[in-house]
Write a structure and sequence with these properties.
Blueprint: H1 2-48, E1 54-58, E2 72-82, E3 85-96, E4 101-109, E5 114-122, H2 136-139, H3 164-185
Antiparallel strand pairs: 1-2, 2-3, 3-4, 4-5
Length: 186
């Protein structure tokens, strides 16, 4: 019985020490991680809307009723500005892919009614197949595409070979963003 108590006490001490160590590491790195995330977001915003100088966060509720479902969720929105004037918008959207949510930024020129850029921020798609949705070769086909486009895989969007579900998730995100922007102009 004593041996079991000693082993249990030793395990308890090790677990408490590990938990304290993890807590200290979390507290020490928390601010740095948040800072890096902001830096990465700022760079990604510049990629999807290169003509903009600044990006102002928008209240999603102010955009009206967003077309959300179990397949798509609007996370954030930004107004892209240059010279103090609005040039367009950038939406951070989560769309359900094969491996889970695909989080991406979609930049839109609201004056010309076209896509300015896309950037996949997070995904859990199959490496070598679905993960190719994050590649320039796939994303570049959306650049300059009109918001009037249906964004249908197989019609006006070429799917990544072997990753139709992942490709549809990206196209769905673009279609929903276009729907919002077109609704805003009415």
């Amino acid at each position: 019985m004593r041996k079991i108590l000693r082993v249990a006490l030793a395990l308890t001490v090790v677990c408490v020490a590990a938990a304290l160590s993890l807590s200290v590491v979390y507290v020490v790195t928390k601010e740095k991680i948040a800072e890096e995330a902001k830096k990465e977001l700022k760079e990604a915003l510049g990629v999807v809307f290169p003509e903009a100088e600044t990006f102002t966060p928008l209240d999603l509720a102010a955009l009206g009723t967003l077309p959300e479902s179990k397949e798509i969720q609007f996370l954030e929105a930004y107004e892209a500005q240059s010279g103090g004037e609005r040039r367009g918008m950038v939406f951070k959207v989560a769309s359900t892919g094969y491996g889970g949510p695909i989080v991406l930024l979609v930049g839109v020129d609201t004056e010309e009614g076209k896509i300015t850029g896309l950037k996949v921020l997070e995904h859990q798609e199959t490496p070598g197949l679905g993960s190719n949705i994050a590649e320039v070769g796939f994303l570049s086909q959306f650049l300059g595409k009109s918001l009037a486009s249906p964004f249908r895989v197989g019609e006006d969007v070429q799917a990544v070979s072997g990753a139709t579900i992942s490709s549809r998730a990206v196209a769905r995100a673009c279609a929903k963003v276009a729907e919002i922007v077109r609704g805003e102009k009415r």
